[in-house]
Amino acid sequence: MTTAFVGLGSNLSHPRRQLARAVSAISRLPRMSVIAVSPAYATAPIGCETPQPDYVNAVVEVRTTLGPRALLHALHSIERRARRRRDLEVRRNAARTLDLDLLLYGRRRVHVPGLTVPHPRMHQRAFVLRPLVDIAAVATIPGRGLARGFLHGVRDQRVARTRSHFSR
Description:
With 168 residues, this protein is an alpha+beta fold. The chain has helices at residues 15-27, 68-81, 126-135, and strands spanning 2-10, 32-37, 40-43, 55-64, 99-105, 110-112, 115-117, 140-141, 145-146, 159-162. The radius of gyration is 15 Å and the shape is globular.
């Protein structure tokens, strides 16, 4: 079994509910166990060309025997069921019903077409680091170091704990 961390985000169609449904769907995946779910955080959009609503973000820790590509494929299936579009017409950082990112997969580094682990910008994003550190205080980003060590560098990014619809 490998411990992996998945980032969740939504800013459309009842974001807290979207995240709760995503956690439930992840827990039902074969060869997967949800170990921990972070609190939910309201965060400002980053890198957007047009105004959009705040996001709700969280991180889920899982144990899985799925490989990184199979896990990513399963996460994309959950996104599609939430009506997430990942086609060329949709701009990067556009508003979305659901975004599931494979942040960490054990201590492995993976760089293949369509998949980079650790997530290449996770150390620059408060909306990833804050919930990750909440559930894994000693989480290490391979090639970079302790995740909590990057929190100081993102303190200017707005991230505020909010209520969630998680049943765990």
